[in-house]
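RECORD CONTENTS
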Amino acid sequence: MKYKYILITFFVSLGVSLALRTYEIVALTDSVTGFVENEYVTVASVLTGIIALLSALVGVFAYTVKRNPVKLPKTSIPLSIASFLLAFGILFDVANVYFSSNVPAWQATLVNVSGLISVVFFVCYGVTAFVSFRLMRALFIAPVIYWLFKLVCVFTSISSISLLTDYAFMMLAICATLLFMFEFAKIANKIELSISYKRLLITGLLASLFSFLTVVPPLLARFFGATTVFREGSTDAVVYMLSGIFVIVFILNIFKGGNLTNAKKLNK
């Protein structure tokens, strides 16, 4: 499928999913408990099913992409800003996040240490838009470690809690972002270049989709007068939102026409 149609599918799916999820929070969910009201369970299940179908559609369409980027893109000003913002988001998360007593201290420590290294990485990555230098390839693994242990800690924290839709989208956001960062590191280290770009697009679009679905609907629900809370915590909400922005900006940069091996063939 043509890349522009994949992007159209993504943005349309994102808009529809945000609208459906916001409606679910405002009209169908008990703001105190986070559970869907008993009389609306069927409707909420249908809405969630539509969101799941749209997400699957985005992933399937992304798999059909014909574009084949040459390498990591030159850091543009928007990508640099997104990188700086993500560095701030991770730093804010490390400084303020609180894990439940179920999480072993060593796991929380690894999240904080890898998070601080990731902050340095994203700051340096953002600086490359203004100063030409080569980042150490080993540094690209830092975000992978950060999201991996964040996944472990968050899962441990919520494992003893009733599963809410909020938590489901949050876990999907973390998993997709982890996979995206893994593919990001592989491409930076020139590993499996011929197949990593499809995986990068699939995981990147889904990471942005689920990250925005985790954060944006509760904010929109407040605009419509609903009393909502971030079940995942406000610090996590910041890092999910900023990671979603970074990922989609990166995707738009790496798949642009000037960074393709087959640009002439695609005639775009």
Remarks:
- The CA atoms of residues 187 and 193 lie 6 Å apart.
- The mean pLDDT is 86.
- The first helix runs from residue 3 to 28.
